[in-house]
Amino acid sequence: MNPILVLGGGPAGLSATAELASLGAPTLLVERESYLGGNPKRWHYSLLAPDLRPAEEVMDPLLERVTGRPEVELRLGTTLTKAERTATGFSVALRSADTTVTREVSAVVLATGFDHFDSRRKFEYGYGRYPDVLDFKELEGMIHDDKVLRPSDGRPPKRIAWILCVGSRDVQVGNPWCCRMGCAVSIKQAVEIRQKHPEIDAYVYYMDIRTYGLWEDLYWKSMQEYGVKFIRGRIGQVTVAEGGSRLIATGEDTILSRPTEVPFDMIVLASGMEPGTGTKQAAELFGVPVGPEGFLTPRLSDLNPVDSGIPGVFFAGAATGPKAIPDAVTEGMGAALRAFQYARR
Amino acid sequence: MSIVARLPRRTLSLTEEEEAAPPTMELTGRRRMTAEERGTAATIFQEFRADRRHREFVVGCLNCGECTTGCPAARFYDFSPREMLQIAQNGDATTLWDAMQEKIWACCQCYTCNMRCRFGNDIAGIISVMRELSVSHGLESTRRTLAPFGRSLTLLMTVGTQVASDMIQPDFFRDWGPFATGSDKVWQVSAEVMRKAIPSDVLQTTRSSWEVSVQTSLELFRIYEETGVLDMLRGLDPDLTEMLIDIIEERREEFVEARERFQDQLAGQTGPVTTFSG
Ligand code: SF4
Ligand code: SF4
Ligand code: SF4
After folding, report:
1. Domain A4-113+276-343, CATH 3.50.50.60 — does that match?
2. Cys-Cys link to A266, which of A122, A157, A170, A232 (CB 3.0-4.6 A)?
């Protein structure tokens, strides 16, 4: 049997690879970056929602399951440049640095994931201009190293604001979908910071709180046990206070129907999830359908969310839409099974 | 296929049913209104909801308040574009009536709210639809609100402009605060600088900016006549409307005379002829 190609080494791709290997299927895991682990590794995610377990505790076992196994051929720093259908599957061209090799594969799992929204596109928040306006993925790293300090002067902040839905639920930037994670991750960050530094005030500006399902517990506890404050309304602009370095967040408190202007030491943007560049490239190469949002579209998203509808091509993870790690891992398992069945047909 | 794509598309035109019977709502009677006011409020509500622009401008709302954040009027008055949009979307006849008494006139039509709205509403647009209705129904409150602006209105409707750069001085624009007076410590902007910021093609003085060609005046007025603006105004202020008509009649006569003079001159000439029509 020719190997099964898994494209993307994030949680979904790792999970698919691990399952394929345990089924004894030869698997070719291709990752664009020089490391495995996807966005959680890239941005040094701290604790993961919903169980608030350290990212390493979740990611390391996944990584262990794919490394050093005879069934798995690992190609890092590699991209797919060509894919052609053959009698037995696909012939794919893989480029790394300056060499390109052609390989025959029997089936493909696209686990190409998402990219964080580039918050500079919401220029009114001053991300990229004001050093103390952070993207929440950057704060993850700071929390992880317990170095939550203002980038501008290295001093600890006294008051932090989170702005939810940055680059999500917004037709101005062309992203009308919800990122599913932003609320939970922001609240989790606020809790983590309040746990270690109760002297720091945490405010979350929201339109809706979408800690769906059992994650609601996180939202409740953040208020009951950690005193995180929630203000309903969006910040519409961030400026710098006159003669100082504090940031001023201007918005409307939509519950009180009153304009608000609050100084903060640090402002954190919950940037949304967009289809990754790898996802767009893979869609073109395999001719798989893409929805208006740019995510890959399963043929039957209810009955078989991992089937592309194109024989031999399967999906896993955030390539089909914003997804949490547990969902990405589950889909990796499903896609592995479907790809294995196809390869053995 | 995306989930959204499977939902029925919102159309911009009314269905036949709706066309025949525009949406109505019972008056809640939360405030004291005379029978006549109730009647007008109900009519306005129906006209408002049946206006095609309502469907186009009001697409839904997340109540996020981002429109209000950037709104200059919201900083100074008890006014919020979010509230206006909510009223336009969900309000009943009485709420609409209330908002149309005063609030809608706080807006300066800068369109910042539209730029901010992440749902794609035309908030400034729907506010101007409300204003249109309040003018065309000659609401007493609108008459009162607009009374001090008779002079501006006359200029706007007869020469199409009413500010000129040399008007930018503290006496005229007290509400511009320190910016216009040049005493502002942060910006150091003087009236002189602001005048210079005005593009040269509009760099007119009060005298020259109000001197427009007869043709421009007539064309402008023609637009007001054809689009129904004049009729709207008549309901609100018949005297002002008559005065405007008089001014324009004079200009028309001026124009006709000029045309005759021109044609007379032409009669004595040979060569290519330019036509001159009004
Ligand atoms: S999950 Fe929360 S932050 Fe993300 S788009 Fe949805 S509502 Fe906004
Ligand atoms: S157009 Fe009116 S409502 Fe909108 S921001 Fe400007 S003043 Fe406010
Ligand atoms: S910005 Fe748009 S969506 Fe948000 S409150 Fe205003 S009208 Fe509603």
Report:
1. yes
2. A157
CB contact under 8 A, B116 and A236: yes
Q: What single DSSP character describes residue A126?
A: -
A 39-98 → B contacts, CB under 8 A: none
Class of domain A117-272: alpha beta
Nearest CA to ligand 1 atom 5: A178
Q: Which residues of chain A have pLDDT under 50?
A: none
> Domain for residue B127, yes or no?
yes
Measuring CA to CA, which residue among A299, A242, A280 is closest to residue A8?
A280
Residue A50, preceding peptide bond in cis (omega within 30° of 0): yes
Q: Of A180, A242, A252, A297, which to mutate for an interface test with B (greatest number of B Cβ within 10 Å)?
A: A252
Query: What are the C-alpha distances in Å from B140 to residues A121, A224, B37, B112, B137?
Result: 46, 52, 10, 29, 9
**Whether B69 and A253 lie within 8 Å, measured CB to CB:** no
ipTM above threshold 0.85? no
The CATH number of the domain where B90 resides is what? 1.10.1060.10
Query: Is 0.90 surpassed by the pTM of this model?
Result: no
Quote the number of domains for chain B. 1
Nearest CB to A252; choose among B68, B118, B120: B68
